[in-house]
Specification:
Helices cover 79% and strands 0% of the residues. With 97 residues, the chain is an all-alpha fold. Helix 1 runs antiparallel to helix 2 and helix 2 runs antiparallel to helix 3.
Length: 97
């Protein structure tokens, strides 16, 4: 059963790699990277369970959080062009008449 789950996750990684390579937009590539990160979390959890090492689950959780934070940072950079911006929208910066 675990071999089938591992095989399914590996097939998902291959499909995500294809989406990343063939994706016409940067958002397709970002989604593929996020999917690969999620599959890595699943593989770490499966590997930890199979080897009887529960500390792998802690590593998987930390990697999942880093994956989410990385995707949010890339999306903010793509939207605003700067990671240090305060998050003010363009409408708030326009002077009122």
């Amino acid at each position: 059963m675990f071999a089938a789950a591992t095989l399914a996750v590996i097939v998902t990684v291959v499909l995500a790699l294809a989406r990343g390579a063939l994706g016409p937009t940067v958002f397709d590539r970002l989604q593929a990277a996020n999917s690969i990160g999620t599959c890595a979390v699943l593989l770490l959890a499966l590997l930890g369970f199979l080897n009887g090492r529960p500390d792998f689950l802690d590593l998987a959780l930390v990697y999942g959080l880093l994956n989410v934070i990385g995707v949010i940072a890339v999306l903010k950079f793509l939207r605003q062009g700067d990671l240090g911006a305060a998050g003010v929208t363009d409408a708030a910066q326009e002077p009122r008449q």
